[in-house]
Every structure is written in structure tokens, then in C-alpha cells.
Amino acid sequence: MDILAPLQTIEDSLSKATLQQMSQVIIAMLAMTGRVTMLGLARWAGKGGSYRSIQRFYYTAIPWAQVFWQFFSQHLLRKEGVYILAGDESVVGKAGKKTYGLDRFFSGLQQKVIPSLSFFVVSLVSVSQRRSYPICVEQTVRSEAEKAACQVKKEAKKVKSAEAKRKRGRPKGSKNKKKSEVALTPELQRIQEMVKALLVRISPLLRPVYLAMDGHFGNYPAFHMVRQCGLHLISKLRGDAALRFPWDGKGHKCKYGKRVDYAHIPEKYLKSTTVKDGIQTCTYQAQLLHEDFPVPLNVVILVKTNLLTQAWGHVILFSSDLELSSENLVDYYSLRFQIEFNFRDAKQFWV
Questions:
Q1: Integer Cα distance of 33 and 47 in angstroms
Q2: Distance in angstroms (rounded) separating the CA atoms of residues 341 and 86
């Protein structure tokens, strides 16, 4: 129970008083039951952990990103191990009106927009240990201009859906746009700043290659943002993504070939087939084209079939690294879910 010993590695980032207060908070948090509050921590902290001391600790500005990295590099890092980055958002429901950053965010658990706080987390995930270590956590605080822009976009979408469907063909007067030129949204700009700062901090010891994020980031703006950071994106596309094979040389010369039929993918792209508990999983891999992306994508399609009922479904994963094998692509994307266990543990104590 000597908490101070492991905390010595972060003494350069914290004052002696803050370090002592943190040790009392950690001891109380591990010992207490039920919901964690400042009053509950004070009751369980013992000598030196009065309510005022706990309160002073939570009012102290702490460089958490630096603290996380120092602790991880000293106690948890395996220099011979392989690590990837994973990013995801966690939403915590919150009542009231005075909490800093309180806004309406989409909750994945409730499948709707709720009054809440939102936090974006970038984590280092060990491939061998299969465990996530949060390194950078920032609260999402949207500006008034960003909220107004979202409202305008929402209203425009309603108007467009209410209007009659336009005629087929290209609208008169429209101009070509370069797909390689993309304006990053405020959300992507925040994430990019986090990732770039993190890469600078960890570069002396680690140089991760991949950033895995969920299907919300399976689009070209997110792809472009990650490539600007010098990383390769691993993410998921929509199930109805309009992927196409490259031109096969037959007929009139063009960039795009036939559209991918997920129910009848050519056998030459099949990488493996497994059967478990009556479910057959076929793994296909190919370099495919998407009209929203100016470059080819390394795509892995997982087709699962119930051998008894013949019902089937598919998942589309992709990466910007064209040399990444299908096994590693699937494995790295599945490791992204380890960050969800961090969210579960945090909410278990604090929500």
C-alpha cells in the first residue's frame, strides 16, 4: 500500500504537497465503496486527507498529459513491444446548467443526444499485452460559433430533405473540386492538435505507426487529418459503402471498375475461412477505390454466414497503409475496443 513509491516518477511535474494529496486520494479511492465524492474521499483518506485537502487537490491545475506519460514510460512501457494509438470519445450524462463544458452530445449507450459532458481520449494500446493505457484526455468544449454552424447545417439538411428531389445529372454551373483539398472540422482540428502534441512528447521512446478509430471517423476528412500527423488510419466504413474495384482494362479506359457486390466477392480476394459455432467467417482483402477518397484503400471485408439459416452480414475495415496484412488490420482494429474498458472502469467509480 505504499502509494508514494510509484508516484516518485512524476515528482518533477507536481509539487510535494500535490503529490501527497494525490497519494491520499488514491488510497481512499481504492478502499472506499459506492460512488466517489470529495466527502467520501475525505472520510476514507485517513490522516492528512481532510475535506479541505481533497478540495484543494481538485482545484489544482495538473499537467495530466505529462503525468500520464511519465508514469507510463517508467512503470508500464515495454521497449521491445509494439504499440498503436487508439482514439475515442466518451460521453457522461450530466444534469444542471453550471458545469463547465455542459452541452448536448450523442450517447452511444442511449442512442440519442443527451445533456452531457464529452471527453476525447488518445490511448497507447499494447499489441502483445492487449491492454489500453490512456495517455491524453481532453474535455470537448464547443464554441458558440461551432454550435451555430452545427445548427445551420442541421436546418439546411431539413430543408433539403423537404424539397423535391432534383433531376438526374450534374447541376448546371457546378464546378469540379479537388478531393485532396479538405477543410477540417473543429472536432478534427482538436483531435489533430492532441495527436501531434502526443507524438512530440513520446517520440524519444515510441514511434507508433497506426491510429485506430471507430466508424465515426471512416471518412476522407478524418483520413486526411491522420495522414497529416504522419500516421496511418485504421477505421471502419459503412456497410453500404460504394467501393469499386480498379479498372480491369476492359472497355473504355476509366478510373473505376465494377462496384463491389458484398454477397458475391471474387474468390481471388479470399484470404481465410473459419467456422465456429455454426458461423462461417470469410476474410477478403483488396485495394479498392471510393469516390470520396482520392487514393486507393487497403480494405478488409469480413463476411459472416449462419450455416443453418444462411443469414449473412458483413463488416468493412480499411487502412491507409496498403501493405498492412488482413490479419494485422483486423487485429489492430479489434484492439481499439480496449479503450472502452478504460471508460467502463472510470464510469464505474465516478458516474
A1: 19
A2: 13
49 plus 197 within the same structural domain: no
Domain that holds residue 35: 1-62
pTM over 0.70: yes
The reply to whether 135 and 151 lie within a common domain is: yes
In terms of domains, do 208 and 87 share one?
yes
> Does pLDDT of 251 surpass 80?
no
Domain-located, residue 295? no
Residues 6+ away with beta carbon under 8 Å from 25: 41, 45, 49, 54, 57
Res 86 pLDDT > 90: yes
Q: Which three cell numbers stand for residue 136?
A: 491524453
Count Cβ neighbours within 10 Å for each residue of 297-336 and write b for 16 or more, e otherwise: bbbbbebebeeeeeeeeebbbbbbbeebebebbbebbebb
As a whole-number percent, the residues of the chain with pLDDT over 90 amount to 48
Residue 209's nearest CA partner among 229, 223, 193 is: 229
pLDDT in tens, 124-136: 999 999 999 999 9
Helices 186-202, 220-228: crossing angle, 10 deg rounding: 30
Q: Which residues are paired to 131 by β-bridges?
A: 126
Q: What is the pLDDT of residue 320?
A: 95
Same domain, 144 and 187: yes
**φ, ψ for residue 76 (rounded to 5)?**
-120, -20
Per cent of the chain over pLDDT 70 is 93
Q: Does pLDDT of 162 surpass 70?
A: no
Predicted pLDDT at 281: 94
132 and 195 fall within a common domain = yes
CB 66 within 8 A of CB 87: no
Coil/strand/helix, residue 323: coil
DSSP track, 220-271? HHHHHHHHHTT-EEEEEE-TT--EEEEP-S-SS--SEEEEP-TTS--GGGEE
Identify the CA nearest to 177 among candidates 326, 96, 292, 38.
292
Looking at the structure, tell me whether residues 86 and 197 fall in a common domain: yes
Look at the alpha carbons of 209, 214, 218, 222 in this order and tell me if their dihedral is positive or negative. negative
